[in-house]
Design a protein that fits this description.
heterotrimer; A mainly alpha; B mainly alpha; C mainly alpha; A: mainly alpha; extended; B: mainly alpha
């Protein structure tokens, strides 16, 4: 009973905040509602006894991804008016496509075809059961190949991001701390010997 | 002794309340809830008192290091008592001050920000074990939970910086966001090292896997991770020498420049609560938590057997808390690009490398830690 | 069990290790020409090529719990991927050096892209297909965007990225539906499940359509071709060269794995979808290409047309038809490599020879390279005895044999239309006056390899059976 109350509570929060992400006019507010919806879905995952996924969602998406997202959104000056300019014009098309998609998906997912009988209700497991451990075992045995390829993809993402953003010659003004430490007086200071000037010699 | 008090309260206060107020079906749940509330209070009240006196300790310690006296006037009932009343006086002062909400700021988020920054650092205490049995929530993924919550602290800072509608605050928020994200990775890898070494995500199990003697503690096999964890902790809590987010000489007070009164003091409390949390986590994960440092030494072990385990945890935590103050008094503030360089180019490679070393040690069953 | 698995995947594992090595070499080398990076890259490709040859599978070997397969199709495709990438990097190095935009990451990302292609060729579960595709695409997005000062390159990268992400989304949507309906991600299991029970065929087709849309996006088939011309034109020629060659083999492998290995029971359904895509691609490709003045853009539309032809072989639904498709895509990659190589050859510092007018009077400037270009264009147009003729011939023959006579007729009509714009380049080269008489300057190795490239098209055209028998064993074994 309590589980159901918790489920509906977080399910409601999730739906509400997810729709607020789309509806809000201020992009910062949208981003913060997205954070809230991540929390709500993580709570639902906890209900399914998938504590690793739940916490990883908070850790990765809320703790890192959304922070950077907010970081970027705060620095951009997004003009809502221009973003929404085509909204009314494309609304009929959008709604038609959406309705079609929902109907078609509803037929597939909602029908008996979607193997819903094979996905049984989750078993209640003892407190010594570790979701993290089970996930780790599956990941490193059954899905080892995919796991390694995913690692390679992330490596490529890092290489791509760094090679695209680092343009040593032009943009960055970074300093090399080592050079700064070893700087000598002669490098910065130039002693100029010159004749003393008197007022009369000007002009 | 704590158990006796808890049993007393449970029997004589909570049980009567539930039996009086609730229908019979709901009595067990009601009792459990009330007991949990009592446990939460038993953790939070000492934490908050420690926060208050930690500020006092900071002023005293830094005062001594700098050859000053520190606060020594405010006491109780006419006795100055080395200034022990100072935190209470400060608290009263901050509470009665007006909270000014700047024009053009986002009112709701402006008020939410301090709460968002304090809440995670208090919530993380739920999984901290104080000894073998005393833990509020003994969950499997305790380590992950702590990591997730410490990563949330940044929201308070970012939102405060943005909602204040002030350039300095915004700059502070941006600095803080970049810094926390950078150091969180190193911190995560350090914790992954602990996870590999102990084979568990449960904080209690982590401590128990260090038992044996002082050389069994993880601070020896995980020494680089230990150092990096603590330094990253300094950076995560925006403490000196990583306090560019506040940087009073550059951006006035950073993200909380527009805050005053109670709103400011909540930020203040969050910072100190986070420090205590990092200190207790360092003690738990690298220094054997509640295990006695004399364990395994014949003679001394028996001599100190009467000391409650919790004492050792608190002593170790106090030591790390002292380190925070010591560092602040010692090191000048890092320049921003140096902070970034240290995080990304030094700490992350070292932690990844050491993760490999630890895994090798674990696989080869290297004594005395992993056999 | 694990060690046997590792040996089956040893070319991929080695390539990953070598790519990381190249990354390290480049990070610590200070050479502005990145010669060490370049040579280690080329050496890596040769090593992997040798490993694929050495461990050439005699039968179908499955590894990693059915997510990886090594059969003769994957091995032959991998050989061509490595070989073609080797030549592509050789041309690219020339181009990047000449245009002063040489970056070591080009080669690193290129190697990762080759890894992605090899994974796609060997994918035996939908998850591996998707991950290989992402590895390939991610590397390509970054390579297109690498020239940061060029606004057209940035625009191309943006379009490529956004549409590519959309395509990946479509593909994943389809994958998740097929997974939900069959309860498996492994291609063989999916095929078995559908064979056993296809009561929910309609819904399987619904999921399959999404997957085909994803594949069509990646191959650049009409009506999902919008990104192709912009990316081909906007990207640096070295990257266009890369995109238009080896990844096409990978895209072919992906469609073979998904449609033939996984969804063969639904063959009637995907045949009709591919028919529409094929006719539309041939029509848009061949007709719009006529109006182009930029040769890179023209070749982009020609790619679209060729993809249409590629589908024809798959529509026939027989294993010899698939061999025809494989023959087609390999010969297309070889021709496209030569054509973009010519553009690189004619370009010089700060000047891209990417307009049709730049080819005016090439026969007077360099009769030899005009001849090579003639070979390439005749081959693309499908004039006998060049390679391109045979590729079209095999595909059409299989199509007619399977009874799709009308479709073959349409294909012939469109390829006759297509001949026009290929011949126009030959006319420009041989019958127009050159705008300038500047000599072609480029290194000896570039000239030698490009000449070999052109002659290979002619040689394979004279004896197409070598390649054809290779393709037949690939599909049969």
């Amino acid at each position: 009973m309590i589980e159901q109350i918790v489920f509906y509570l977080f399910g409601g929060i999730l739906l509400l905040s997810a729709s607020m992400v789309v509806v809000m006019r201020n992009p910062i507010h949208s981003a913060l509602f997205l954070v809230l919806s991540f929390f709500a879905s993580s709570a639902i995952w906890l209900l399914l006894q998938a504590e690793f996924l739940a916490i990883a969602l908070v850790l990765v998406y809320v703790g890192a991804v959304m922070v950077l997202f907010l970081f970027v959104v705060m620095m951009l000056d997004i003009n809502i008016a221009t973003v929404r300019a085509g909204f009314a014009r494309f609304l009929p098309v959008g709604i038609t496509v959406a309705v079609l998609m929902v109907t078609a998906m509803g037929l597939v997912v909602g029908a008996d075809y979607f193997m819903s009988d094979t996905y049984m209700a989750i078993k209640s497991v003892g407190s010594d059961y570790s979701n993290t451990k089970e996930l780790g075992i599956t990941l490193y045995t059954e899905y080892l190949f995919q796991f390694e390829v995913a690692g390679a993809i992330l490596l490529v993402a890092i290489i791509a991001a760094i090679s695209l953003s680092m343009n040593k010659s032009k943009i960055t003004k970074s300093k090399n701390p080592q050079d700064q430490v070893f700087v000598k007086k002669q490098d910065r200071l130039r002693v100029v010997k010159m004749q003393s000037e008197t007022k009369g010699t000007e002009s | 002794m704590l158990e006796i008090i808890y049993q007393f309260i449970s029997q004589n206060l909570l049980l009567p309340i539930t039996t009086l107020l609730l229908p019979v079906d709901y009595q067990p749940q009601g009792l459990l809830m009330l007991q949990t509330v009592i446990k939460i209070l038993a953790i939070l009240i000492p934490v908050l008192v420690t926060v208050a006196y930690f500020t006092y300790a900071e002023r005293k310690v830094i005062g001594f290091i700098q050859g000053r006296i520190g606060p020594n006037r405010v006491g109780f009932f006419g006795f100055s008592l080395w200034g022990l009343g100072q935190p209470i006086a400060d608290a009263v002062k901050l509470i009665v001050k007006e909270i000014v909400i700047p024009t053009g700021s986002n009112r709701f988020l402006f008020v939410m920000a301090p709460i968002l920054s304090l809440a995670p650092s208090l919530a993380a205490w739920a999984v901290i074990p104080f000894d073998d049995t005393k833990v509020l929530a003994n969950i499997n993924a305790g380590l992950l939970y702590v990591l997730a919550l410490t990563s949330l602290a940044v929201y308070g800072v970012i939102i405060a910086g943005w909602a204040s509608n002030s350039k300095y605050a915004f700059l502070g928020a941006l600095r803080s966001a970049a810094q926390i994200v950078a150091y969180e990775i190193a911190m995560g890898f350090a914790l992954a090292g602990v996870l590999v070494a102990s084979g568990s995500l449960n904080l209690g199990d982590i401590v128990n896997s260090q038992s044996g003697s002082i050389i069994h503690w993880f601070w020896i096999p995980l020494f680089p991770l230990f150092v990096i964890y603590f330094i990253s902790g300094l950076a995560e809590t925006n403490r000196a020498p990583f306090d560019v987010a506040e940087g009073e000489s550059e951006i006035v007070a950073g993200f909380h420049v527009e805050y005053g009164g109670m709103a400011f003091s909540v930020f203040f409390m969050a910072e100190y609560a986070n420090m205590i949390l990092i200190a207790v986590l360092s003690a738990l994960m690298f220094c054997g938590g509640w295990l006695s440092p004399f364990q395994g030494i014949p003679g001394l072990e028996g001599l100190f057997a009467w000391v409650p385990p919790m004492f050792w945890l608190l002593a170790k935590t106090s030591f790390f808390m002292f380190l925070f103050l010591w560092f602040r008094a010692t090191f000048p503030r890092y320049r921003y690009d140096q902070i970034m360089r240290l995080g990304w180019k030094v700490f992350i490679p070292i932690t990844i490398f050491w993760l490999v070393v630890v895994s090798a040690l674990v696989i080869t069953d290297t004594p005395p830690w992993f056999n | 069990m694990m060690n046997a698995d590792l040996i089956i995947a040893i070319p991929e594992i080695t390539l990953l290790a070598l790519a990381c090595l190249v990354l390290m070499v480049d990070a610590f080398s200070k050479d502005p020409l990145h010669l060490l990076t370049y040579w280690t890259t080329q050496a890596s490709l040769l090593v992997v090529l040798a490993l694929v040859l050495y461990y050439f599978p005699e039968n179908v070997q499955v590894a990693f719990n059915g997510s990886f397969v090594s059969d003769s199709m994957s091995a032959i495709l991998k050989i061509f991927m490595c070989g073609i990438s080797f030549v592509v990097f050789l041309y690219s190095h020339e181009y990047l050096k000449e245009h002063k935009c040489l970056k070591g990451e080009y080669f690193v990302l290129g190697l990762f892209a080759v890894l992605g292609m090899m994974i796609m060729a060997s994918a035996y579960s939908l998850l591996s297909v998707y991950l290989g595709l992402e590895l390939l695409s991610l590397s390509l997005y970054a390579m297109v965007a690498m020239q940061r000062d060029s606004s057209s390159a940035s625009e191309a990268a943006m379009k490529y990225f956004v549409l590519g992400a959309l395509a990946s989304g479509m593909l994943l949507y389809g994958i998740s539906m097929i997974y939900g309906l069959t309860g498996s991600l492994q291609l063989v299991t999916i095929a078995d499940k559908i064979n056993l029970d296809d009561t929910n065929r309609m819904f399987l087709v619904y999921g399959m359509i999404f997957m085909i849309i994803g594949i069509a996006f990646k191959l650049g088939a009409a009506p999902f071709h919008m990104w192709v011309p912009d990316v081909y034109q906007g990207a640096p020629t070295s990257v266009t060269l890369f995109i238009s060659t080896a990844p096409k083999l990978a895209a072919f492998a992906m469609s073979m794995r998904v449609l033939v290995d996984g969804l063969m029971p639904l063959v009637e359904d995907w045949q009709s979808i591919l028919m529409i895509l094929s006719v539309l691609s041939m029509a848009t490709g061949n007709i719009i290409a006529i109006a182009q003045t930029n040769i890179k853009r023209m070749l982009a539309y020609s790619t679209i047309a060729h993809v249409g032809f590629l589908f024809l072989g798959m529509i026939s639904g027989t294993s010899s038809g698939f061999s025809g498709s494989m023959f087609y895509i390999i010969s297309y990659a070889l021709m496209s490599m030569g054509a973009f190589g010519m553009i690189i050859l004619l370009g010089r510092n700060g000047f891209e020879a990417d307009m049709l007018d730049d080819f005016k009077g090439l026969s007077e400037r360099s009769p030899w390279f005009a001849f090579i270009m003639l070979c390439l264009m005749f081959s693309m147009a499908g004039v006998p005895p060049f390679l391109g003729f045979w590729s079209k011939w095999f595909v059409l023959k299989e199509l007619v044999a399977s009874g799709f006579v009308e479709l073959a007729g349409i294909a012939v009509i469109f390829s006759i239309i297509g001949v026009y714009y290929y011949l126009r380049i030959i006319k420009l080269m041989y019958f127009d006056k050159p705008e300038s008489m500047t000599a072609i300057k480029s290194s000896k190795q570039m000239r030698a390899v490009l000449s070999l490239n052109g002659l290979l098209i002619l040689a394979l055209g004279l004896s197409p059976n070598i390649l054809m028998s290779l393709c037949l064993t690939a599909i049969a074994g």
